[in-house]
Amino acid sequence: MSGVDVTGTIFSRLSPGELRLMPALSVGWPDEKVATLCFITKTTLRTHTRHIYQKLNVKTRAELAVAWAQFALLIEIAERNNIKPIDIIRAHRPDLLQD
Q1: Any bridge partners for residue 97, and if so which?
Q2: Please, what sign has the CA dihedral across residues 77, 83, 87, 91?
Q3: What is the rounded CA–CA span in Å between residue 58 and residue 64?
Q4: Which of 26, 38, 59, 76 has the fewest CB atoms in 10 Å of its CB?
């Protein structure tokens, strides 16, 4: 998912560092493992996670994981079918679009 264009989606609210954490946060691993794999401290991870929750208006990692997984799936479907990602997101998960 690295390099995915998030323009026009709620994920464009995230900083590059926060965006890089999304796949790892969505897997359900403990903070220590995510921090180690992402080469950051647990304190930095917690700070980024708090900011991500605020920016995406989610309250749990499960909510975050569902939004990210559905976004990733829609991007993959769009790429395989030569559809603009924003069009497929608009059709199937308009709540993922930027206000």
Answers
A1: 9
A2: negative
A3: 6
A4: 59
Average pLDDT score over residue span 2-18: 87
Does the pLDDT value for residue 58 go beyond 60? Answer: yes
Three-state SS for the chain is CCCCCCCCEHHHHCCHHHHHHHHHHHHCCCHHHHHHHCCCCHHHHHHHHHHHHHHHCCCCHHHHHHHHHHHHHHHHHHHHCCCCHHHHHHHHCHHHECC
User: Taking the domains of the chain in order of start, what are their residue ranges?
Assistant: 10-96
CA-CA-CA-CA torsion sign (1, 18, 50, 8): negative
Residues 6+ apart with CB under 8 A from 94: none
What CATH code is assigned to 10-96?
Answer: 1.10.10.10
